[in-house]
Structure formats: C-alpha cells, structure tokens
Design a protein that fits this description.
Shape: globular
Largest sheet: 4 strands, antiparallel
Order of helices and strands: HHHEEHEEHHHEEHEEH
Strand content: 5-15%
Oligomer: single chain
Structural class: alpha+beta
Mean pLDDT: 91
Low-confidence stretches: none
Radius of gyration: 19 Å
Helix content: 40-55%
Length: 307
Amino acid sequence: MTEDDRRIFEELEQRLRTLLPEQYQDRYDDVQPISMGSAGVRYGPDGRIAWDQMWGSFCDLAMAGGPPHKGTLLLPGSARDIEADRDRYDAILAEICRGIGMVTELPATASPASGWVRVECLTRGMAGWLARAISMENVAVRADGAFLELPAGPAYRELKEVKNVITVIAKTVHYWLGHMPVVQRQTIAALIEGMNDESPLVEPVYGADEGVAAVLDGVARHVGDAIARDTGLQPSAELTGAWLGIECQTARAAVWMMRMMATVNVLSRREGTRLFVPVNPAIDPEGEIVVSSVALVHRLALARGIV
C-alpha cells in the first residue's frame, strides 16, 4: 500500500468507525452475516398485528457486516399498479404508517410521491444515517432533509413486504437511538454534512419513466465497462431497478467494499457475493463518481488482502 493509499484508508476507516454504533467500532471485521431468523407475529386484542410487540432484539446491522434484512431488493409499487388497485394501496399505506408509528414513535404518512411512505425523523442527520443503513438492508429508501421515504405497493402482503418495511425501520431506529449516544449522533450528522459538501450523495433513481430508463441503461453500460477496465470486476448484464451489480467472488469482499462505499458518499448494497452500486444520471451523469469510488475501494481491498 502506498503512503497516499494508507492515508486515504485511515481516513475512510475512521469515517466508518464514526458511522457505526460503538459495539461494532473495533470488531466490524469479525461480524458474521448470520440471521437470527424471522420474528413471530403477535396480535393485539383488536385482532390487528401488534408490531411493537414482535422484537426483543435485532440481527447485526448490514452496515456492520451483518445479514441484510432482505435477500433481494424491495422496491416500491409502480404508478401503473397503484392506479389499478388504489383501495388496496391505500390500505397498505395505512398499515405501514400504523406499524412505523408503533415501533418508532415517528410520524409516518403517505408521501406526495406515489409508492412511498414518508417518515419524519428527529433530525437531518438521523434521516441521512437511516438512508445509508437501510439501503444496505436491501430495502429501497431515500432521504430529503429530515424526511425519510420507504417503499409501498398494492401487491405488498402484511406478513411479507409490509413486515419487511416495518422491521427495517424498527431495526435501524433501534440502533440509532438505542446504541449511539447523542454526541456520536451529532458527530455522524457533521460527517454526513461534510461528505455531502465534498461530493453529492450518489443514490439510485427510483420510478424512472421510459425516457429516463433509456438514459439509465446507457450510463450503466458505461459504468460497468469502466469498472471492469479499472478493477477487473465483472458487472451484471442488466440493471436491478437503478442498481448495477458487480461480482466480488466472496461475500467478505462484497461486505467490505459495501461498507467502504458509504465512507465516500455512494449508496450501495449487496446480494450474496454481488455488490450493487447506484446509477443516477442527474447526480453522476457519466458515472464518474461511482467508477472512481469503486476503483478506490477495490484498490484498498487489494492492499488489505480482502480480494
């Protein structure tokens, strides 16, 4: 590792320590991606699901190397599907909002954008951290100031996708409020603000229309070719939503690179041994931020013997 790379690695590793709850800060390389299993369903006297009575503890954060809550990405319903079954969609929205309120005590309402539930966080820093953590749990998410948005759709089932959304917000809010003191939360907020000043957060484009989708495909091909050229890592043939998959060969390598991508302000997630990075023509028109970030993180992984 060159002296410059050593300096960069030390800075990024310090950022990662800052982002993680204290219990993980000196052991995140030892965390195993093993699930505790699904929580059992409990019902209240009214016969409705008692979301606030279902969890006594949670799996390790995916950000710390634990298992992502979802094995594959949970996306919001499409505008077409929502319009075709508006009553069902409204019922799903109401149940997700009810569950979020029960498990977090945060206000949750239908977003102005179709397919999303809006959660009002306590601070901008909280919303920014939750967005990064939830993305790694394989649930679609986006943040705007102190507001966090989570997915919803008419095809969602109470004991599957609705439970997924409520579980992931319960899990991440639990770690934010229950495992990080106020001073650390303030430090994280300052770090996120500083990273945003350095380079805008690169996140995927959800719900793109046909015109934007065509642009996405073009940018994705360019990004995939450039990553293959610069790192030797092979990209997926197709996008998943607005995410480009990159084969990392081992889960350890995918986890390591995913966590480090957060320290350069690029959202990422993983499915097994595949790292997913976002494609966003509005924020990163040529994909240069994503390509350079993956190349940097891969170079550091090579130097550390991770890949």
